[in-house]
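pasting for ref. prot 1 ->
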Amino acid sequence: MSAARVVGAGLSGLTAAWRLSQAGFAVEVIEAAERPGGLIQTIGTRNGRIEGAANAFVWTPSVATLFKSFDITPQFASTEAGRRYIFRDGQPRRWPLDTAETVTLALRAARGALTGRSAPADRETVLEWGDRVWGPAATHWLISPALQGLYAAAADELAAGAVVGHGGSLLRRGRASKIARPSGGMTALMDCVVERLRQQGATFKFGARLEALDPSVPTIVATGARAAAPLVEAHAPRLAAALASLRMTSLALTTGFFQPDERDLHGFGVLFPRDCGVEALGVRFDSDVFPTDQDPKWRVETWITRLDGSNGDLLDSSQLCRAAAIDRLALTGRINDPVDVVTTIRPDALPLYGPGVLDVQSRMEDLPPWLALAGNYMGRLGASKLLDVATEAATRVVRLSHAQSRRTASDTPV
């Protein structure tokens, strides 16, 4: 049995390890933290479970296959989760454009389909691309908030080529999809994968840091970009430099438990365009999305805020709670003290999907055959897409390892 190594035991690393194990490799997983899961963390509180990062998967064939492989019954989001809002002119709206702006958007979409001019230009920002293809109103009130809900960045910071792709199909991609997660929360899946891997002979080292990679062992580095850079440097220096230079975004999640009010808005949540008077990127209505997670007597909301130079002082729970209360007042017009609050800060949670991500993608061919990468800087974000990235990394290692074995066998004298 051939040996393989995975560095990182987050969602990407565990998925890659599982794929390698299924292909017959003896897998070793090395993780710097004391637990698996990476950013994913289901947190138990006295009032119920909450998620410290991604709360579900978009339900895709690869996600369905993963759940089936581990005999996990999916818990699908409630029908209310299909209602999503964007904040405009002091009100949450299902569709944020007025009639004239909607007609303009439709005409521009038709023109783009006929002329093929919807693809991003080289190094064009999402703001530039959106204004050119869809119009300023659609960019500001629709595209920008939708993207910041995923990438945690404004339209003028995002590279259109990194988030849109060459087909310019952003609006189709942005449609609400069915989402699901394990009934015990997202951490339940991580624990299940670790247990099954151990049953198949995989070994884990938690609280351990790898100082250098061994070229004799096929390896997948499934860490964040900053941790991957020094490991890759000796083997792909230009790629390592691109990884090290990626700008990162830190996030804070403030989850509040409130007494329900008949005036409460219901649905998945609300996104807030920049300069609308709200600091948060968005709010998720957890008690509507997966209502069985918490005590039904509470309304549960998670306010998601980006931490950067302008609000870097929001680093303790009391400040985050005050900021969330101000934002909640802007949304609801009411001041309600929560019965409980849980704050989670995620330093360097996401790479900024600007030109730096394009630079990383352009250097992937520098990797030697025995080495692959899997992470949220690979051009795809979201829990479901990370499964695909990890599977592709494992497929690369398996394919090239088998090719090397065939070459070795053919070179062996009979």
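and prot 2 ->
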Amino acid sequence: MNEVLHDDAPFEWLTNFRSLRHVVLPSRIVFGPKIENESEPKDDSRTPGISDQKTYMQLNALHVGCGTSTVGESLFCMRERSNNTLLRYGHVVNVDNNQHALNSLQRRWENRKQQQQTTEGASQSSDQHNKSDPCTMEWKCLDFNSEESCRSALEGMCHESSGGYFDLVLDKSTLDCLLCAESSVVAQLLCEVYRVLRVPSDSKSNKSTTDKPSSWGGLYVLVTFHPAAFVEKLLTQLPGANWKVEHEVIQREMEDISDNKVCAVDEEVNYEEPNNSADFKKKNIPASSAWSNGTFPASSAWSSGTFNPDENYRKTVTVFTCRRCSQSGEDETSLPYILDRELVIQHVEQTCNDWYQTINPMVTSQREDELRKAFLDTAAAEQNMNDNRGDDKVLPSADVTLDLKQCYKILFTEAEKENLTFEYFLEDWAAYCNPGADCSSAHSEGMTVAIALDFLKEMQ
């Protein structure tokens, strides 16, 4: 019997699967988003010939940065009947750089299957719909720091019936986390996502070589807590990429995860609108050109260079959908289109610099004045506690050094500390004080106000 570990418990970051289900329904991948007041997609409207040739269709899904999320299970178990076709994600690959988390997910899934077989009998599996193409769920260790790791984890992971691509790549805040790392790691994620998405084809391009019907472009679904304007530029202006980018705002739904709150194996669902209030629901917002003329407002969570989230910030999350389009002369029989990694790195760096240094800087003149005063006040208070010289005491100078605990307390708001613990702050400080930085050993355990301000500007 497998030992049950405390940290084997599933955990959902940002929001649960149900709040996202309308975005990842198989019919959305195959037929596109449902038009309001439209009952079912017509056979000849978006994907000609599909309903005539198949009554059962399997899609491939990639869940990046899965951690101990049950999203992969929910995708795999979901069935949807649309346009006279039973759709499902018959092949789901979960990737993460934490092997322990992957082992935990795999143990959990094997236990669920065993319990279901014991209860219902192994003969009642819906996989009988297509015995020649068995459904699979996999867990792969992948580190976006390494191109070799990406290749070994993803190569050969897709069924040939899909042209070797993923129909869905679901990213629930993995990009957010990587944006705190090096630009090269963010670039590697974006390049790999684009490379593995299904390339669309049309009947005209395939007519002379194959009888297969026209197909759809793969969908990258990104759930993010970063400002929508920032992420929009990152995705819409990705060098070399040809995809349609839209986004919507949904309400977060958090809950304790248990087996009865995850899709039952072989659960069939119908299309439904997300369970969000009309105040927050915004459907199919096209990419905007407002960034170019600087008209995007700063995020409501930021004011005078400090992070002060309002009530709505904590209740909502932005979901981006990027639909893969064909490059010139490219179809699903072509080799995957590889983005230029160096150009993508430059784009990531430029976008971050534009946002954090120009459009929404962390260190404004107001915040700088407040931090200078806080440094002097803290130094003066500390001096009063240790100095009994009364009126003869010397006021602290601007180059006074405070220890790191004092600096952490002064530099960040309480809301910022929720996302940046003291331990993470120390990691950032260590990175700032690397041998290539202008940081003397005298300040290795503390900061002057000048160093503190430079640290904030450098690490934001």
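DSSP finds 17 helices and 14 strands in the chain.
The first strand starts at residue 56 and ends at 64.
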